[in-house]
Specification:
The chain is α+β, with helices and mostly antiparallel strands. The chain is built from 20 helices and six strands. Strands 4-3-5-6 form a four-stranded mixed sheet, with helices on one face. A two-stranded antiparallel sheet has the order 1-2. Helix 3 runs antiparallel to helix 4 and helix 4 runs antiparallel to helix 5.
């Protein structure tokens, strides 16, 4: 395969825009979103700090250094800290979502930029810019060829996360445009992440965010020292999109067109439930049906209209989604999740224990849930919900939701984000005093050198 190379590649156009951003000068809404991301990601790291997958990731690191693994006494290298923190932040699937993607920006970019800045000591304004740039690149990449990466069997957060982390760390460390191009080119060879975890609820999705975070650091540092990456990493005939989306034809203007003047990061959604994003509106619908006084035993059958692009991850094989094999598989099983919301009035972190996923009342309702594809569903631009329950008396009760609660149509407030942090920290074993001290530290983190020592326990 041969093709005439462009005079100015997509990465070069993007890097030039990144390099000309003034450090710390961001729109107020973008700054506020980056503050919320910081609070949310740290809380998620704490809530997962004692979980088996986080302990495994920490113990697997043999590279001690000066950087903070949030919620742990042990210190690691920047790459090691980014890996552990990213894995923890994404571990419970409770992290932010970009509705156009779907991708998870915070769990990748925040750990990468914080670790790099804690190690290399730029001021907090650079960290703020790096988080904004990294999140923006990650989210915009998901718009170039929507749905194609998932369809090809890869996890978009893993693929685009390496690129977003490289851009974010590059911006935070003050790399010039040529170095950012090289960082992106290098990160393209570090990107990866298959979605076979869906088969049996394996842990690998959890490490995708951490692996992308540490890859971004390594790519940026290599580029800073002159290591050369391909400038046609995105659109090249052997580039990122050819490899992971099976096409190099895409809307690259969605990535570069108004970068730096319009921030899609502002629309990032914070989840109300710790599970797969597209399942969340269905949980809300199920909860509203139950609130109408309908009892689980009253239900004969449940039919949900769904987007075709979500079926292979959240609905099939249907029997496994009605009776998930383990707690992690349950996070991506809409029949189980909506039944849990219906029976228990919500879905919390406790819904994924081995005891919870064997709840007879939940499973009895979950087995009644089936789906039909709605060809007009707006996914991935909007995440909708629909639950239609046929009752044993022949009547029908139905609920619809046209958007993801916590997203652009109904965003969480700063108080909501803080409340979520407190609950997550409590779940992770922190006292109220520890949690309040951490919030105070985070409130001023972008105003000086990045020092996360107060988050070690």
């Amino acid at each position: 395969m041969t093709s005439e190379l462009p005079k100015a590649s997509v990465a070069e156009t993007l890097a030039q825009k990144i390099a000309t951003l003034e450090p710390g000068v961001l729109p107020q809404a973008t700054t506020r979103k980056c503050e919320d991301l910081l609070i949310d990601v740290v809380g998620l790291c704490v809530t997962a700090r004692n979980e088996d997958y986080t302990q495994s990731a920490l113990l697997a690191c043999d590279d001690d250094g000066p950087c903070t693994a949030i919620g742990h006494r042990r210190r690691l290298t920047a790459s090691g800290a980014a890996f552990v923190n990213g894995t923890a932040a994404h571990g419970e699937d409770f992290d932010d979502t970009f509705e156009g993607g779907p991708v998870h920006a915070g769990a990748v970019v925040v750990p990468a930029v914080l670790a790099a800045c804690e190690r290399h000591k730029p001021d907090g304004r650079m960290a703020l810019t790096g988080i904004a740039v990294g999140a923006e690149v990650l989210c915009r990449l998901s718009l170039v060829v929507p749905k194609a990466v998932h369809k090809a069997g890869f996890h978009p957060t893993a693929i685009f996360g390496a690129m977003g982390a490289a851009a974010g760390v590059g911006a935070a460390l003050g790399l010039n445009a040529k170095q950012i191009v090289d960082a992106l080119g290098i990160a393209g060879s570090m990107a990866g992440g298959i979605i076979e975890y869906l088969a049996e609820g394996a842990w690998t999705k959890r490490l995708h965010a951490g692996w992308a975070a540490q890859s971004g650091i390594r790519a940026a540092l290599l580029a800073r020292q002159g290591f050369v990456g391909p400038r046609t990493v995105f659109e090249g005939v052997h580039g990122l999109f050819h490899g992971f989306a099976h096409t190099a034809d895409g809307d690259y203007d969605a990535l570069t067109g108004d970068f730096g003047t319009r921030w899609v990061t502002d629309t990032l959604a914070f989840k109300p439930y710790p599970c797969g994003t597209m399942a969340q509106p269905y949980i809300d619908c199920a909860r509203r049906l139950a609130a109408r006084g309908i009892m689980p035993d009253d239900v004969e059958a449940i039919l949900c209209e769904v987007a075709e692009g979500t079926v292979h991850r959240l609905w099939e094989p249907l029997a496994d989604k009605q009776r998930p094999k383990n707690g992690y598989a349950a996070k991506f099983a809409v029949p189980y999740l909506l039944a849990t919301g219906f029976v228990h009035g919500g879905v919390g972190l406790g819904a994924f224990t081995e005891k919870a996923i064997r709840d007879a009342d939940v499973l009895a309702l979950a087995v009644k849930a089936k789906f039909v594809i709605d060809p007009d569903n707006p996914y991935p631009n909007n995440y909708t919900g629909h639950v239609k329950a046929t009752l044993k008396d022949g009547s029908v009760a139905e609920e619809r939701q046209p958007y993801l609660r916590g997203g652009a149509s109904e965003p969480l407030t700063r108080q909501d984000v803080t409340d979520k942090f407190m609950l997550n920290a409590q779940h992770g074993g922190w006292s109220k005093a520890q949690s309040e001290a951490a919030l105070k530290l985070l409130a001023g983190l972008y105003q000086g050198r990045i020092d996360l020592s107060g988050l070690r326990t």
